[in-house]
Amino acid sequence: MKPYFQDDAVQIYLGDCRDILPSLPKVDLVLTDPPYGIALANHDPNGRRSNRPYTVKNDDTSQIGQEILDYYTATPTISFACPEKQWGGNWNQYLVWDKGGGTGGGGEPTMYWYRTWELIQVRSLGRLNGQRDSAVLHYSGRGNELLLHPTQKPEELISYLISKVVANLILDPFMGSGTTLRAAKNLGRKAIGIEIEERYAEIAARRMQQSVLPLEYENKGRTLEGLGSKKSSADNSPMFNL
Ligand SMILES: C[S@@+](CC[C@H](N)C(=O)[O-])C[C@H]1O[C@@H](n2cnc3c(N)ncnc32)[C@H](O)[C@@H]1O
User: Fold this and answer.
1) What is the spatial distance between Cα 176 and Cα 197, in angstroms, rounded to a whole number?
2) CB 83 within 8 A of CB 58
3) Nearest atom of ligand 1 to the alpha carbon of 149
4) What average pLDDT does range 106-133 have in this prediction?
5) For the domain bounded by 5-218, which CATH number is listed?
6) What distances in angstroms separate CA 214 from CA 100, 163, 219, 224, one per listed residue?
7) 217 C-alpha to center of ligand 1: Å?
8) Which pairing describes strands 77-81 and 29-32: parallel, antiparallel, or unpaired?
9) How does pLDDT run across 84-103, given as a tens digit for each residue?
10) What is the whole-number distance in angstroms between the Cα of residue 36 and the centre of ligand 1?
11) 123 has which bridge partners?
């Protein structure tokens, strides 16, 4: 199968990961963020669903994520997970990602407390790279990064996770905007990503070509050449167009 995009460090495939995975080489680490099966939707503070486009393809079921995680049972894996709906199977460790204030729950009326944390499930990681750390990871969920996907994860957090594992080739079958691939590439690792929606495969491909981030990006001006219009740092809405 022909990649949608490739360079020296990464390969991006556009399509359903269930079709593409059988043709891929063996990987050293699966680091992924599958649809949780929670039918993600944004709520306004009155509990009504807003019309903002906060949806993730296949998020009406956790079966696809579970199927892929089961396919890689023998491979070291780090997977984001919904605390209320964890992935099945045998996992060695559970990490808490503390996203910080101002995140979690939206206006969902059944959430009495803002859930400002997410779960990360870990299995079979082999040799640790570096020292042991706390299993509570503090990385801002609001971040200063350009928002490219409704459930985009902080690049810094993904870089940290990759850095703890001795792995050269990393796979993200639910790549979204390509955070795993970008982080892997920054760390000199190789990565393969798969995404079912072309708009995100395209964003990820462009993200791979940003070898040096523009100054405005580093200065929180929130632009990334070729990816969208300039936004103010107060505007945390997604950049993508539907
Ligand atoms: C939770 S998001 C990942 C976001 C990513 N961590 C980021 O930082 O941008 C899951 C992604 O999986 C994609 N997806 C859903 N079903 C898929 C499938 N069967 N094969 C490949 N990608 C799929 C969705 O389109 C979505 O972009």
Assistant:
1) 8
2) no
3) 9
4) 86
5) 3.40.50.150
6) 26, 24, 9, 7
7) 24
8) parallel
9) 899 999 999 999 999 987 66
10) 10
11) 77
